[in-house]
Amino acid sequence: MKKDLDSKKKTNEKNEVKVEKGQKVNNNEKKIKELKERIEELEKQLKDFENYARILKSQFENYKKDVAKEKEQITISTTGRIVEKFIPIIDDFKRAFVNAEEEIKNTKFFKGIELIYKNFMKVLKDLGLSELSVGEKFDPFEQEAVEKIMDEEKEEYTIIEVVEDGYKFRDRVIKPAKVKVTVKPRR
């Protein structure tokens, strides 16, 4: 009888072990399944974060480009306003050179002033200032007609004299050239 009890105990222990092993296997399979699901979830989150990082990086690069463009535009605009303030000084220099007497034009002082003017103009040209070229035909976008002269022989709105030079800063007219133009007499 004792043998039977011992053998039953052993069988029960074996069965318990079997049950325990089965539970352990089931528990391990559950844990593996849960871990795989967690890994998939984390991989999805990683992809989401990578996409978000790419988008954020792209937006930041665009922001940097926009700021650089804006900074350049501000610099150009400010430089243009400063250069524009020098236009009356340029006109004064030109009037002084035209109205100077011949004996003054031959002095070292006058030559020095001419050199200063040339250097001044070079600096302004390097910044983007250019003198408007005046053709034969009147252009209302670049010129201002200060006087109309009646003439039947010449074509209407032909420029006959430039009174004051005009200037552009980059591609923007900051001072139109002042000109005299011809018009046909009215009958």
From TrEMBL:
A GO cellular component entry from the record: cytoplasm
Gene3D superfamilies per the UniProt record, alphabetical: 3.90.20.20, Head domain of nucleotide exchange factor GrpE
Subcellular location, principal: cytoplasm
GO terms under biological process: protein folding
SUPFAM superfamilies in the record: Coiled-coil domain of nucleotide exchange factor GrpE, Head domain of nucleotide exchange factor GrpE
Record InterPro entries: GrpE (IPR000740), GrpE_CC (IPR013805), GrpE_head (IPR009012)
A Pfam family of this chain: GrpE
Region of interest (Disordered), ranges: 1-24
Annotated localization: Cytoplasm
Listed GO MF terms: adenyl-nucleotide exchange factor activity; protein homodimerization activity; protein-folding chaperone binding; unfolded protein binding
Keywords from the named record: Chaperone, Cytoplasm, Stress response
Subunit structure: Homodimer.
Entry similarity comment: Belongs to the GrpE family.
PANTHER family: GRPE PROTEIN, GRPE PROTEIN HOMOLOG, MITOCHONDRIAL
Function: Participates actively in the response to hyperosmotic and heat shock by preventing the aggregation of stress-denatured proteins, in association with DnaK and GrpE. It is the nucleotide exchange factor for DnaK and may function as a thermosensor. Unfolded proteins bind initially to DnaJ; upon interaction with the DnaJ-bound protein, DnaK hydrolyzes its bound ATP, resulting in the formation of a stable complex. GrpE releases ADP from DnaK; ATP binding to DnaK triggers the release of the substrate protein, thus completing the reaction cycle.
Protein name: Protein GrpE
Organism whose genome encodes this protein: Thermosipho atlanticus DSM 15807
Protein's gene: grpE
